[in-house]
Each structure stands twice: as structure tokens, then as C-alpha cells.
Specification:
The chain contains 22 helices and 17 strands. It is an alpha+beta fold. The relative contact order is 0.06.
Length: 545
């Protein structure tokens, strides 16, 4: 068979015109287009201020941190390397003319990004617009599942202003606004901030909107609140079976919504569900390779160089691993493939906002974040803060208790397995001995980790256990008393009988009797420090062990 004939058609990009139709106001504004609006955009690239100015042919270059005149090198490099467009933030309105002149000279389109917008938002939405382009077709014939096109169609059918959000209230796509549209504060701030602003979300929660969306497939109506800058709205949940994937919101503009707005919105939700389910299932070959190499490095089965070469990483810079695990209930009841995808997406978004090289991979039941190319000045406290943000967001948006751990910061990418092992030690201790904190580094819970590992050793090697303590637990398991529990409570209270008895809700004399009975039955001598130490450890093992 001819291998060339069997190869899939190459993916084409989207035109600058289509990108502007997808993003447009209020995020970006066209300042110059020397090659016209049909120039093709094939990729999105982030240009960090610390990086030398460079671009790939056909790229949309996001010049992060280069405001105003500082963006001149990025424009010239974009023209030299064949980039399609460069996006910058203006330090002052008057700078647009000088930047546009430079862009025209360089032969590259110039987009200005609103100062309130977040770069990771522009990056995510631009990539989403590119990824929605079907294989082998240009953007002018985009398929029905395109979320931006769906938002625009829904806006036409309902007569309103549409946005599509995921379950974390992040904006995935939105309809284009015209000058006559009366956009309210909630929509404007949601698009600029990539996520519904918390004060407004709190109001919607108070009014029971999110609860009704989770419980119903019907269109929900939200009355206008002029005093809060909120116009009348319709909302409907996007569902796949019983699982909510997101929400479509329709804001009423200057004119009333159409008579059949509810029906159009229900249809749009079903089309959006097909699109979001497909988006969750389809992974590009490049992404599959990246995740495979990342997981291999975390497990120690592959070295650092394949991943470094694939992504252009500096393997000699520091790295670290964050680990995440569901609570015990979620691990057995709710950890469906869809839930794991939602958690992984949430972790990806939060870590990418903090560290642009962050990589997320799932190994067995845990989700790991590999942080390569870390600044040499970074510390565990900063990484713990990132992990805490993720844990809190999972509870707030997904209703999942998510434990997190921070592995040690290692000097190079090749040492990543060491950081992953430390992250696992912390998560193991959180499960085994019950740690109150939700996110921790090793110095935070050093004692708990060591106790956890001693318990694991006793679990794996029954021959290391004291048979007298085993006999005591067996005695209690046959319904003959609470002697083992009483001994452990006494030891945990450092021999304070009254404190231990209070914790057990018994009289001190009852506890003294139980201690004497335990010693008589087993031959233990609780006056000996070594026997007390071993008893404190072994009696913490689960009764079934």
C-alpha cells in the first residue's frame, strides 16, 4: 500500500478573519493586517520576555510581558520568521500607531489585547479555535460542532448574547457582540476574566441557579437585577447522560429574546454535549506522545532526554512534582473517566496559569504535575500554595476533596522520579495515618510520613509484629472487650489515665482495670519504654490486618 496515500490529510489552520470572528471584542482588536485577513494561522506560540524573539511560520505569537514599544523586537522577529500575527498589550492608547507601522514594515498582522484580559485565556481560546478545525478542511467550512459557531448560531436563534462555559464556569466560547448589543457587567467580566467573577457567581449560587442546573434539563430563567448590573438571562445545562458538562447562558440584549428561545437553547445544549464529549475523547498524536513521555519519566521507565527534545525543555534546570489524589469515597464511588478528565483539566488550567511549562499526567489512580524548568529561586512554600489553590478549586467547582503533595525540588529533569517518590510518600501518609492538612510538603508532615512507612512495614511483614499485641487485637475482635483500644488511648495520652478515660468516655478505674487485664492476658509490661513504643505503632494497624 502506498504510505503517502494512507496518511491522513494535513491539518490546515484558520484564517485571521476566522480568529477575529471567534475571539474579537472584548478580547482582541485588529490594529494592522498587511497581508490581509486571509492569512493562515496554524499554531499559537507564547513568547516570554526572557526568551530571544523568535516565531514559527504561520504562528500567532502572544508577546507576554512586552507592552508598548517593548514589543518591537517581537514584531520584527515575527516578520522575519514568517509568523501570521503578533498579539501585544498596549501600555498607552497612543502606541498603537507606532506598533502598527512596525508591523506593516515587518509584514505581520498586529492584534492588541485588552489590558484586563489574561494571557492564558487568550491562549486557551485561540488554541480551542484552532483545534475545532476539522482535518483537511479550512476554517470557512467548519463543522457544526465548533463551539464558537454554535454560540453564534444560538445567539441568532434566541435573539440574545450567548456564552458557553464548562462546569468550573470558565468561558469556552461566546457569540460576537455588535455595537447595538447591551452587554451587562456579568458577561463582560466573565469573558475578560475567562471565568465568572466570584461576587456574581456567589449571587447565582444564593439564588439557587447552579443547583437547579445540576438537577434539571429544563431552561432556567434568571430575572434582571439592574442594581447589580445583571440583565435577564436564560441558562441550560449541557449534559451527557446524568453528567453535567457545562452551561449555555443567553443574556437578553437591547431587544427581547425570541419566542422560541427556550427550544433553540435546548437544541444548542444537545449539540454542545456532542462537541464536548468528542473534545474529551479525542487526543492528538502529539498530546498522546507528550503524556506518554511524561508518565514514563515520572515512573522512571524513560529518561529525561526524549521529553526534553520533544518539548524543547532545558533538562539542566530544577524541576519538581505535585501529586494529587481523590478522597477515599471518591476513589471508589465517583472516580469515573469523566470525573478524572474534569479534575485533570482543572489541575492543568491552574498549573498552566502559574508555570507555562507544566505537564499533567495520570499514573494509576493519581494525577501528577511535572514542573520542569523551574526558577532556581523557587521554594516549597510557593509550590504548596499552587497545590492549595488547586485543592480548593476542586472542592469549590467539582465538589471533590482533593489531597495534594509537593515533592522535593530536584536539580535537573533526570531527577524527577525522586520528586515523584517523595510526593507519593506524602500522599500515602495522608491516607494511612489521617493528616488534617489537604496539601503538604515533606517538612510539614515529616513525623506522619515516617510513622506511615513504619506501619506499612509492619503490614507487609507480620513476622516483625509482637505476637502478644496480635493476640490482644484478636481477643477484642471476638467480642470479648475493648482492651487494645484502651491501651492505645492510654499510650496516646502519655500515660495520663484521666485524659485517656475521658476520651474513651469511661471511668478512670474502668481504664485501669482494662490495662491490668491486657497485661495479664498477654504478658505485656507497659512500664517498659520499648514495649510502649511498639504497642503505639502496632495497635494503629487496621484490625483486619
Amino acid at each position: 500500500m502506498d504510505s503517502a496515500a494512507a496518511a491522513p490529510p494535513p491539518r490546515t489552520g484558520i484564517s485571521l478573519r476566522q480568529l477575529l470572528m471567534s475571539l474579537g471584542e472584548p478580547l482582541v482588536e485588529l490594529q494592522a493586517a498587511p497581508a490581509g485577513l486571509d492569512v493562515e494561522i496554524r499554531s499559537v506560540a507564547l513568547l516570554d520576555p526572557e526568551d530571544p524573539p523568535a516565531a514559527r511560520p504561520g504562528a500567532l505569537v502572544l508577546a507576554i510581558g512586552a507592552r508598548g514599544r517593548a514589543a518591537f523586537p517581537a514584531l520584527r522577529a515575527g516578520g522575519r520568521d514568517g509568523a501570521a500575527a503578533v498579539a501585544v498589550k498596549l501600555a498607552a492608547p497612543g502606541q498603537a500607531a507606532a506598533l502598527s507601522e512596525t508591523a506593516v514594515e515587518a509584514g505581520v498582522a498586529l492584534l492588541s489585547v485588552r489590558s484586563e484580559a489574561r494571557w492564558e485565556q487568550v491562549d486557551a481560546l485561540a488554541r480551542a479555535a484552532l483545534e475545532d478545525t476539522p482535518l483537511g478542511r479550512n476554517a470557512e467550512g467548519r463543522e457544526e460542532g465548533d463551539l464558537f459557531a454554535l454560540a453564534q448560531t444560538t445567539a441568532v436563534l434566541t435573539g440574545g448574547i450567548v456564552s458557553i462555559e464548562d462546569t468550573a464556569n470558565r468561558v469556552l466560547a461566546y457569540s460576537r457582540s455588535t455595537e447595538s448589543d447591551e452587554v451587562d457587567d456579568l458577561r463582560r467580566l466573565s469573558i475578560l476574566g475567562w471565568q465568572g467573577p466570584e461576587p456574581y457567581l456567589a449571587r447565582l449560587r444564593k439564588w439557587g441557579v447552579f443547583q437547579r442546573l445540576r438537577a434539571s434539563d429544563e431552561v432556567i430563567r434568571i430575572d434582571s437585577h439592574p442594581e447589580l448590573g445583571i440583565r435577564r438571562r436564560l441558562a441550560v445545562a449541557i449534559r451527557s447522560g446524568e453528567r453535567q458538562l457545562g452551561t449555555i447562558w443567553v443574556q437578553e440584549g437591547s431587544a427581547a429574546l425570541s419566542e422560541h428561545a427556550d427550544q433553540a437553547l435546548l437544541g444548542a445544549a444537545r449539540v454542545a454535549a456532542l462537541h464536548l464529549v468528542r473534545r474529551r475523547r479525542e487526543l492528538s498524536a502529539d498530546l498522546v506522545l507528550t503524556r506518554t513521555l511524561t508518565a514514563g519519566l515520572l515512573e522512571g521507565s524513560t529518561g529525561p532526554q526524549p521529553l526534553a527534545n520533544h518539548l524543547g525543555l532545558d533538562a539542566a534546570r530544577p524541576a519538581a512534582v505535585l501529586g494529587f489524589a481523590y478522597g477515599a469515597a471518591e476513589a471508589t464511588a465517583s472516580a469515573s473517566e469523566l470525573t478524572r478528565a474534569e479534575v485533570s483539566n482543572l489541575i492543568s488550567v491552574h498549573t498552566a496559569a502559574r508555570h507555562r511549562s507544566a505537564l499533567v499526567a495520570q499514573v494509576d489512580a493519581r494525577i501528577y504535575v511535572l514542573l520542569p524548568q523551574l526558577p532556581r529561586s523557587i521554594d516549597l512554600g510557593t509550590l504548596r500554595g499552587w497545590g492549595q489553590e488547586i485543592s480548593e478549586a476542586a472542592g469549590r467547582h467539582l465538589g471533590l476533596p482533593l489531597r495534594g503533595s509537593v515533592g522535593c525540588i530536584v536539580p535537573a529533569l533526570g531527577d524527577v522520579p525522586e520528586s515523584r517518590r517523595e510526593a507519593d510518600r506524602i500522599l500515602d501518609a495522608m491516607v494511612r495515618v489521617g493528616v488534617a492538612t489537604t496539601v503538604a510538603a515533606l517538612p510539614d508532615i515529616q513525623a506522619e510520613v515516617l510513622v506511615s512507612e513504619l506501619l506499612a512495614l509492619l503490614t507487609a511483614h507480620p513476622d516483625l509484629r509482637d505476637p502478644r499485641l496480635t493476640a490482644l487485637v484478636t481477643h477484642d475482635s471476638r467480642g470479648q472487650g475493648r482492651l487494645a483500644e484502651s491501651v492505645l488511648a492510654y499510650l496516646n495520652a502519655f500515660g495520663d489515665v484521666r485524659a485517656a478515660a475521658t476520651g474513651l468516655h469511661v471511668h478512670p478505674n474502668t481504664l485501669r482495670y482494662r490495662l491490668r487485664r491486657a497485661e495479664e492476658l498477654t504478658g505485656l509490661d507497659l512500664s517498659r519504654p520499648d514495649q510502649r513504643l511498639l504497642a503505639m505503632l502496632q495497635l494503629r494497624l487496621p484490625p483486619a490486618v
